[in-house]
Amino acid sequence: MFEAWTLKSDQVAEQEEALRLALRQLSDSERSTFYKAYNPQIKDPDTYATLNWFFIAGLHNFYLKQWIMGLFDLVLMVIGVVMLAVFWPLGAALIALVSLIELPALFRSQIIVADYNNKLGWSVLKRYNPVTLPSP
C-alpha cells in the first residue's frame, strides 16, 4: 500500500543487479530452468499502471497478488459509494482517502513492479538453486 512512498529506486536497481550477477553464476541449464519458472510469473509495469487507473477497485493490488490491500481498497470504495447516497461528506472523504493513498502508486508503477519482479526472481532462484547465494 505505502510502497509507493517508501521504495527507493537506487535500492531496487541494486537488487536487480545483484540478481543478474547471481544468474550469471548459474549453468546454462540452471538458467534455463530459472527462466522457465520466472518468465510466466513476472508482472508488467504498464499493466499495473493501467489497472491503477481503476484504483477504485484495487485491481492493481490484485495484479501483484496483494489480496488484503486489494480487498481493503475495494471495501473502502464500496463503503464510500454507498455513503455518498446516505451521508455524502463521509462517502466523499472515503473516496478521497483511497485516492490519496493509491495515487502515488500510479506514478511509481515502474519501481513498484520492478521491486515485485526482483523479489519474485530471488524467490524462484532460491527454489530452483538452493545453493548459498547472496540474497538482496
UniProtKB/TrEMBL annotation:
Keywords: Membrane, Transmembrane, Transmembrane helix. The chain crosses the membrane at residues 74-101. This is TM2 domain. It comes from Marinomonas fungiae.
